[in-house]
Amino acid sequence: SLYVSEYFSQSAQKLSFYSWYGNAKLFHFRVPEDTVLLRWLLQASRGKGPECTNMEITVHFRYGAPPVINPLGTDFPANATVRPSYSISITLSSAVQNTTFVNVTTPAAGDWFIAAHLPEAAGRIEVKGFSTPCPYMFQADMFVLRLADMPVLEPGVAMPQTIVSPAKALHVKVFVPKHTAVMWLELRNCVSSEQKACAVRVVLGSITLPQSFQRIITCVGKVNCSLALDSPPWEKWLQIMVESLGAANASVSVEMLASFRACRPGSTSSFLNFGSLNQSQTGPRPGSAGAAGSPTLSTGETSHNASDQRSFCLQNQPVVREDLDVVSVRYRLLNGPSVPVNSLSPTLLLLNLNTGMDSGGSLVVNLLLNKTSVSLANATVVACVSAASPVLSLNATHNCSTAFFQGYPLRVSTSSPEAMLIVLYPQTDDWFLSLQLICPKGQGECNAAEAKVTVFAYLTPCFNDCGPYGQCSLLRRHGYLYAGCSCKAGWGGWSCTDVTKAQSVSAQNLATLLLTLSNLMFLPAIAVAVYRYYLVEASVYTYTMFFSTFYHACDQPGVAVMCIMNYDTLQYCDFLGSVVSIWVTILCMSRVKKILKYVLFVLGTLLIAMSLQLDRRGVWNMMGPCLFALVIMIAAWVYHGVKRRHCYPPSWKRWVFYLLPGITLAFIAISVYAFMETNENYYYTHSIWHVLVASSVAFLLPPRDKHKKPWAWSQKLTCRYQICQNDREELYAVT
Predict the structure, then answer these.
(1) Gap between the Cα atoms of 44 and 136, Å rounded
(2) Which sequence ranges are marked TM in the entry (predicted)?
(3) What mean pLDDT do residues 416-428 have?
(4) In this structure, how many other beta carbons lie within 10 angstroms of the beta carbon of residue 604?
(5) Cβ within 8 Å of residue 723, ≥6 positions away
(6) What pTM value is reported for the model?
C-alpha cells in the first residue's frame, strides 16, 4: 500500500484565563479522506519573567464542531444536550516549554476542533501598564498518514484480501448509499498461512471525539462471520480495518462481502411541493387558508397515497433551508408547520447543517402536538434527532441510536404536548428528525390513528439571545465564525441562565446608585473652586461630575441602566474629564502666571484627548500628565522658595490642614483604583475612588489670590440702595 503523509500547522495563540467561551482559543483543522493515523503536536510555552508561575493548560478535542466545555461548572439551559468533551491537561512547571503528542487511529474525515484555555480567571481588574501579565502561548500542529490507494469494497461483490502480518492492518472502504436501512458485512473463507484457526479483528467506522461508536467484531476459529449495522451513515465512505490476531509471521487470507437493504421512501406529491413553494413566495404562508386550497389532488389519488403508506419504510416531508444571517438558519416545511405522524412508518425531516459554517451556533427543535388530532388519548409521538442517518425503527426500539451516532430523543403526548431540544454546537452533517406514533398496547391499536405535530426548527447563534443578562458575541478564528455568551451582573452559564452568583435587582440598583451618586462629592470641590475664583477649574469639575455620573449609569450590567447618549461617547468623556481634572488641579497648585497656566490648560487638554483616542485604558494616559504637572509644580514651588528665601507654601497650617490630607486621600484613591478593584467589588471600590479623588481636590486647591476680594453678596442690593465704586476713566481725543 502507498501511504502519504501530510502536515498542517496554524499560528500560535496567546492563552487567556477562562471566564467565558471567548477566552478559549480555537484551532480548526480538516482531516482528509482515507486517513489511517492522525497525530496532534501540541506545543505550550510561557515567558521567562518573574511574573510567570506554574500553569496548567486544558486542551479540548471534538470532531465536527467546537467543543462544548464547562470549566466553571455552571448550568446549561433547560432542554440542552450536553456531552462531556474529550480533554487533556498540559502542565508548565519548571520547563519553559512543553510538547505533547496525541494519536488518533482511523479518524473520521472532516472538521476537527481544538480549544485551549488557562484556569478560571481571578476576577481582578488590572490597570493596563501597572503590571505585566505572563504570556502563555499555545500552538497545535497536525500530522496525518493517508492511504493513497485504499481498496473499494463494492456491494454484492466478494473481494479477496490478504493480511500480510499482524503489524500491517488491512484497510478498505465502502460507500453507503442514501436510504440504506441495514448494512451487512460478511467475512468468508478466512484461512491462515500456518494452517491454524483464523483469528482476525474487524473494526467498522472511524473515531470521533468526544464519543466514538466504532463497531468491533472478533472472528476466532470461524470460517465465516458477519455483522449487521442499522442505519449506517448515508452518502459517506465507511472505513473498515481488519487486523490479524495470529502469529507474527503468519498471513491471513479472507473474502469480504458487503450488502445493503434499502429503505423505500414515501413523500407527498411533487406537484404539491412545487405548488407550496410557489405559494410561499407569492401568496400566503403554507398552512394558511389561502395556501391550503391552491394545490388540489383528486379523491382517487388521495386514497391511493394512503394505501401506499404501508409499503413505505419512511415518509419524507419537504423542508426548505432559509439562511437569515451568519450562523442563523430557519427550516420551513413546505406543506405547513404541521406534519402528519402515524404508526406505520416514521415521518422524516431533513435539517441540512453541512455547509461547514453551521456548527458554531445552537440547533433548536420544538415540537407541539395538536391534541385534537390524536384519536387515542394514551398514544405518544416519539421523535429522535440524529446526525448522518435517521432512526428508522422507533416502534421497535426507543434508544434513539443509529449505527455510529447516539441521537437525542423527544416525546409528546396529550398530557405533555410540547417538547424542546437544544443541540449546542451541532456537528457539521445532515441532521434528521424522525417522528412516529406509538401506542402502549401495541402497534395494531394505532394503525388507523394519525397525529398532527407542529415542528419549529432553527439554527441560532445564541439560544434566547443569551437572555437579559448576557450578550451574544460573534467570534472568529480565521474564516470560521462561532458564537458565545458573555454574561453580566453575576449571571453565568452557557446561555447566562445560572443564577448561583447572580445579583438581585436591589443589588443592581444599589450598585448604580453608589457609582452615580458618589460623583456628587465633586460638589464641595466645585463650591471651593468657585469661592476662590477658580472658574475654569470649577467648569472642568462640573464636566467630570456630569459625564462620570451618566457614564456609570449607562455602564451597569443589569436592568438598572440609563444611557443619555452613545456608550462610547460617555466613556470617552468620562475618561477625558478625569484626567483633565487632575491636570488642571496640579497646575493650579503650582501658582504660575495666569497666561502660562491657561496655555498649559489648553495644550495639555488637547494632548490628553489625543492620547485617550490612541489608548483609552493605558496607565500613562493618567500617569503622564500627572507626572509632568508635578514636575511643573515642584519647579514653581522651588522658584518661589528661592525667591522668598522661605519654604513654599510658607504657612504650616496650609501643610497640616490642607496639603497633607489632600495628598493622603489622593494616594489612597490611587491604591484602591490600581490594586483593590475586582469584578465583584467594583461597584463600591470604584465609588470609594470617586469620593477620595473629589475630596482630595477640595483640600488641594490653593487659596485665592490676595488681590481678589471675596464674593461680597451683602454689598449687592440692600433696601434699594446700591453701593457704587468710582472708577477713574481716562478720555483720549483723537485728532
Answers:
(1) 7
(2) 510-534, 595-614, 620-639, 655-676, 682-701
(3) 94
(4) 21
(5) 715
(6) 0.83
CA 104 – CA 427 distance, rounded (Å)? 19
| Count of C-beta atoms within a 10 Å radius of residue 679 | 15
Angle between helical axes of 522-531 and 535-554 (0-180°, round to 10): 170
Question: Which of the four pLDDT bands, split at 50, 70 and 90, describes residue 421?
Answer: very high
Q: Which of 580, 577, 557, 582 is nearest to 701 (CA)?
A: 582
- The candidate with the shortest Cα–Cα distance to 33, out of 146, 141, 201, is 146
C-alpha pair distances (Å), 432 with each of 62, 397, 407, 410: 21, 17, 10, 13
Q: What is the domain partition of the chain in residue ranges?
A: 3-123+131-147, 157-262, 311-460, 505-700
State which fold the 505-700 domain adopts: Rhopdopsin 7-helix transmembrane proteins (1.20.1070)
474-491 core/surface letters (b: 16 or more CB in 10 A; e: else)? bbebeebebbbbbbbbbb
Say which residue the cell 417522528 belongs to: 435
Residues near 217 by Cβ (< 8 Å), separated by ≥ 6?
201, 202, 225, 227
CA distance 44 to 95: 10
**Average pLDDT, whole number, for the chain?**
84
Q: Does domain 3-123+131-147 have CATH number 3.40.50.720?
A: no
* One CATH from 2.60.120, 3.30.450, 2.60.40, 3.40.30 for 311-460: 2.60.120
Q: What stretches of 638-712 adopt beta strand conformation (E)?
A: none
Can you tell me the distance from the alpha carbon of 2 to that of 571, in angstroms, rounded to the nearest whole number?
63
Is pLDDT of 605 > 60?
yes
Exposure of 643 in the CB half-sphere (CA atoms within 13 A): 8
Is 242 within 8 Å of 253 (Cβ atoms)? no
Q: Do domains 3-123+131-147 and 157-262 have the same CATH topology?
A: yes
Question: For residue 618, what are the β-bridge partners?
Answer: 128
Read off the pLDDT of residues 9-61 as tens digits, 9 standing for 90 and up: 999 999 999 999 999 999 999 999 999 999 999 999 988 888 888 899 999 99
End-to-end CA distance of the chain: 116
Q: Could you report the per-residue pLDDT of 383-399, keeping only the tens digit for each?
A: 999 999 999 888 655 67
Spell out the CATH class of 157-262: mainly beta
Residue-wise pLDDT tens digits, 297-338: 333 333 344 445 555 788 889 999 999 999 999 999 988 888
Give Rg (Cα) of the chain: 38
Phi and psi torsions of 481, nearest 5°: -115, 140
Outline where DSSP puts E strands in 629-730. none
111 phi-psi bin (left φ>0, alpha ψ -120 to 50, beta other):
beta
Q: Angle, nearest 10°, between helix axes 682-700 and 505-517? A: 10
Structure-block grid coordinates of residue 68:
462544548
The amino acid at 95? A
